[in-house]
Recover the amino acids of this structure.
């Protein structure tokens, strides 16, 4: 068991290294650099000035030396300073953007728990009734409707037509729509999962036994069905939260939130290498951590797995 | 030669029965699928989009990329005031015909959904078959590759790949489609490989495979005629979920300005281009996004229907 956990933990290192390496070489293989007229907002820099910039940021070094330097610093969590915002550390930029994304992701997560699980439970208990069909249909639509399309519809309805919320991002009111959009999508997913898991557990012998010994419906549902059917739901919560935090890349664009996703896209278009590397690794770290969390929750939620391997 | 003949005879006699049973499975599945109204509706919608994509040059009233110097910029669709009868759904910010662009956009969605899927099915199935059948070192190497690709966050990879190679000649191929194909294929084959490998591993131990092997059926024939057909149902189900995933990924990337290259019209890039208009002419944002939504829902209905139809034990 401990070996399994350690094994998974150690796996994250090569994965992060791979992400960093692929990103590094892809970005440097791209035509155009950070000082081009196209990327630097239309201003073409004097060649001498470009050369001095290159020297300052080490871009005149051979690529493998830049790579070695980057890796060496990255291991110490030092990603250098931004090209476009001179003198600002990458870590500082990430920490400025991350709270927006984290807040949206967290609100969306809570919302999806509050909607998804009760709806799934209700649908399963009322299987094959109109309630079940309606919630299943809604969940299917909600699950498949791309979040950015939903975001656009919400923006048009609530911000443009009804004018309840300003189109431009504002503190606190700006969080409502993005959280709602992301939360609805994942609550649909959770509802589907909860429903199918409940239905599976409801057919199991221990539930029949519980009923046979005369337990009331409430006790059977809460003690015997709900508890067991939450295992698969538990295991997806980690990646759901990670997906919500990283899934804001497109949503932030729609609602103009100055979060991580916005930073990431902006740094990519302006070839801001240090910020690109920093944000990519940060994202990858969240995702890898979430995957690790799934494995661990499996281990703790289902004792049968512990004996394997 | 003799061995092959001997092997062919018992197989030849067995085949009709085997085929009749497999026809039973597929016709059963087809019957179940037809009874599912949502799946049928989804299937019809997808077929319609397919036809539109195929017949785009005939259906589109104008060339999708031509800027019409005489047309107004952003003339509204026909149900609004001050519309232009020449352009039934209006014109975009560069005075191009909106309807024609939407029609050609269907092409991009269909192509970007099905072509990478075909590649991943081919690649994933053969590698999964190889890994599962050979086992040992080949299996180890292939699955290590699968693990690595699996761990890489795919949307992040798409963004980085697009951002870095869009400007190159390769990134410009087919209006940026080629790069999307490559991106989706690189990340997509692993799911298929995993799925097929698992199936092959369990099939390998089954008696009918052992029987076929015992009577000397050559390996390639065994794989093609006996193993592969038995993995088909899960492959089809997985295809029905892969296609919309690629369509959505293209739309998302294009919406970020990192997908299809201008002037080519895709629904995602049309959302991207008309997004600045959202406060005063939101209809131009809504039209392409509604199509994206509809196609995603259609595929979801078909996918759910297929899963219920092909995997009766799963459906409850």
């Amino acid at each position: 068991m401990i070996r399994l956990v350690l094994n998974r933990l150690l796996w994250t290192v090569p994965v992060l290294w791979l992400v960093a390496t692929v990103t590094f070489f892809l970005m440097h293989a791209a035509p155009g650099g950070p000082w081009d007229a196209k990327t630097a907002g239309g201003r073409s820099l004097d060649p001498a000035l470009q050369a001095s910039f290159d020297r300052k940021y080490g871009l005149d070094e051979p690529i493998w030396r830049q790579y070695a330097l980057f890796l060496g610093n990255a291991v110490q969590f030092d990603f250098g300073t931004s090209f476009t915002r001179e003198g600002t550390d990458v870590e500082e930029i990430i920490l400025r953007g991350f709270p927006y994304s984290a807040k949206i992701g967290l609100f969306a997560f809570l919302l999806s728990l509050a909607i998804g699980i009760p709806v799934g439970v209700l649908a399963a208990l009322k299987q094959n009734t109109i309630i079940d069909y309606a919630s299943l249909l809604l969940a299917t639509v909600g699950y498949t409707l791309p979040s950015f399309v939903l975001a656009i519809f919400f923006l048009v309805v609530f911000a443009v037509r009804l004018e309840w919320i300003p189109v431009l991002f504002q503190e606190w009111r700006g969080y409502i729509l993005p959280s709602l959009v992301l939360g609805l999508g994942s609550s649909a997913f959770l509802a589907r999962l909860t429903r199918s898991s409940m239905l599976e557990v409801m057919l199991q012998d221990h539930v029949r036994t519980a009923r046979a010994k005369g337990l009331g419906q409430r006790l059977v549902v809460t003690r015997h069905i709900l508890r067991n059917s939450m295992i698969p739901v538990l295991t997806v919560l980690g990646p759901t939260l990670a997906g919500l935090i990283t899934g804001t890349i497109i949503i932030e664009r729609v609602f103009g939130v100055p979060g991580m996703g916005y930073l990431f896209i902006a740094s990519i278009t302006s070839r801001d290498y240090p910020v690109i590397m920093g944000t990519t690794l940060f994202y990858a770290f969240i995702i890898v951590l979430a995957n690790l969390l799934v494995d661990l929750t499996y281990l703790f939620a289902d004792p049968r797995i512990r004996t394997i391997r | 030669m003799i061995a092959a003949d001997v092997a062919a005879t018992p197989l030849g006699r067995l085949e009709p029965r085997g085929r009749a049973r497999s026809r039973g499975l597929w016709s059963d599945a087809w019957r179940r699928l037809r009874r599912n109204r949502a799946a049928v509706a989804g299937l019809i919608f997808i077929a319609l989009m397919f036809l539109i994509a195929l017949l785009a040059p005939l259906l589109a009233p104008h060339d999708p990329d031509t800027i019409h110097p005489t047309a107004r910029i952003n003339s509204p669709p026909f149900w609004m005031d001050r519309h232009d009868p020449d352009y039934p759904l209006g014109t975009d910010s560069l005075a191009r015909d909106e309807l024609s662009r939407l029609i050609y956009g269907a092409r991009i969605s269909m192509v970007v959904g099905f072509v990478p899927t075909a590649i991943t099915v081919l690649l994933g199935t053969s590698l999964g078959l190889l890994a599962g059948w050979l086992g040992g070192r080949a299996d180890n190497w292939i699955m290590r590759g699968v693990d690595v690709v699996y761990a890489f966050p795919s949307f992040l990879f798409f963004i980085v790949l697009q951002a870095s190679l869009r400007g190159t000649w390769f990134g410009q191929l087919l209006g940026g489609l080629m790069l999307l194909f490559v991106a989706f294929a690189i990340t997509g084959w692993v799911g298929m490989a995993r799925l097929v490998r698992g199936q092959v591993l369990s099939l390998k131990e089954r008696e009918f495979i052992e029987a076929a092997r015992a009577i000397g059926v050559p390996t390639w024939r065994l794989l093609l005629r006996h193993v592969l057909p038995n993995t088909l149902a899960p492959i089809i189900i997985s295809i029905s979920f892969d296609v919309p995933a690629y369509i959505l990924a293209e739309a998302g990337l294009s919406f970020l300005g990192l997908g299809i290259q201008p002037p080519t019209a895709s629904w995602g890039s049309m959302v991207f281009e008309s997004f600045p208009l959202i406060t005063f002419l939101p209809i131009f944002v809504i039209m392409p996004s509604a199509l994206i939504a509809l196609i995603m829902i259609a595929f979801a209905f078909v996918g759910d229907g297929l899963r219920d139809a092909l995997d009766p034990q799963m459906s409850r």
Observations:
- Chain A touches chain B through 49 residues (CB under 8 Å).
- Residues 96-258 of chain A form a domain with the MetI-like fold fold (CATH 1.10.3720.10).
- The mean pLDDT of chain A is 81.
